[in-house]
Amino acid sequence: MERKRPSTLRDVAERAGVSKMAASAALSGYSGNVRISETTRVRILEAARQLGYTPNEVARSLRRQRTDIIALYCGYGYLNASLPFLSEIIGGVQEGCDECHKDLLLHGVFRGQSVDDIHLACVSGKTDGLILNAAPMDPLVQKLAASHLPVVAIIDPIDGLPSVSVDEMLGARLTTSYLASAGYRRIVYFARGWKPPLVSVERRLAAFVQCATEYNLDVEICGLKDLNDLSNEALLSLIKPIGVAYRTAAVCWNDAVAYDLLARLIPIGVKVPDDVGLIGFDGLGTQLDGVMRLTSVRAPWAQVARIAVNLLCSRINGEPVPSETVLPVELCEGHTA
Asked: How many domains are contained in the chain?
């Protein structure tokens, strides 16, 4: 069967008895220097309906120099929406896109591609702007910061780019105040050893150490890349050292590390919170909450992403935006501390 040819703007103009310029003005809603009466406009719209005409969005984008699409790029790996943290981020970006009437493109992290290849994909004109979650030392970041593409960074602030993050110092103050009032004196802080280090990890750790000092808490830092690098004996020695009489709590830089630690402690007979307290950072709910809800600093990641989209749209429109927007956090008490 021969495929039916799609209707064109010329077809609509001929059916309505007008010029292509008049048909284009009526269908796009932008008249420019073309003046058409309401009667003519209605006739053109009816002709388009009868012919089943749909505008060529690629051509419209070229004329408007807008695609009404924004992108999300994560420099730390695949955007796995099944992970609670990334689910919040992607959901928040989507909510912001809905508010701003934009479509969303998720940029892939293609293994083996060069930095130049990824940079070209980001600035190729497919999108009007980019939400970026990457380390400041990532070579792609510097290329994007110097490009014409409007970019807003989230979670890990980046010099030279507008950023949306959360209040790490407030999180540290809430955590240390809670631990001190609960009678904990010794803290083991688990800071994942990322290479290159994440700004959020470093800020969170520095803020915690500063606040812990104000409360006279003893802090020992464990900066392993993977908890599995610790043997059971080494983990027990770290969590329950011989001769220490006062209460110990483990503070993790995020919830994922806290749950990993919990999974290591239970099989070796360490009870939480009886033997050791446990606090995370993110406040993301899981299916385990009914049995063991983690005490955690709740960070509004979905709101971070949503606000970033709104700021990005302001940048696209040429409006000024703050260099960094910082959102408050709260401590949510659970069963682990």
From this structure: 3
Residue 281, SS3? strand
Instruction: Give the torsion sign (CA, 23, 28, 29, 34).
Output: negative
Contacts of 18 (CB under 8 A, 6+ apart): 36, 40, 43, 44
pLDDT for the residue 185: 94
Distances (CA, A) of 91 to 142, 173, 325: 27, 29, 19
- The CATH number covering residue 112 comes to 3.40.50.2300
Query: Kind and range of the H or E element at 154?
Result: strand 151-154
Q: Which residues contact 206 (CB under 8 A, 6 or more apart)?
A: none
Instruction: For residues 155 and 26, give the distance between their C-alpha atoms in angstroms, rounded to a whole number.
Output: 44
What are the Cα distances from residue 160, in Å, to 146, 157, 306?
9, 9, 21
Tokens of 235: 């983990």
Q: Which residue has the higher pLDDT, 224 or 300?
A: 300
Which amino acid appears at position 336 of this protein?
A: T
Whether residues 27 and 80 fall in one domain:
no
Crossing angle of the two packed helices 255-265 and 232-239, in degrees rounded to 10: 110
Q: Which domain range does residue 273 map to?
A: 168-299
Mean pLDDT on 146-165? 93
Judge if 158 and 231 occupy the same domain: no
* Residue 220 contacts residue 186 (beta carbons within 8 Å): yes
Residue 1 in domain = no
Q: What is the mean pLDDT of residues 238-256?
A: 86
CATH number, position 42: 1.10.260.40
Question: Mean pLDDT for the chain?
Answer: 87
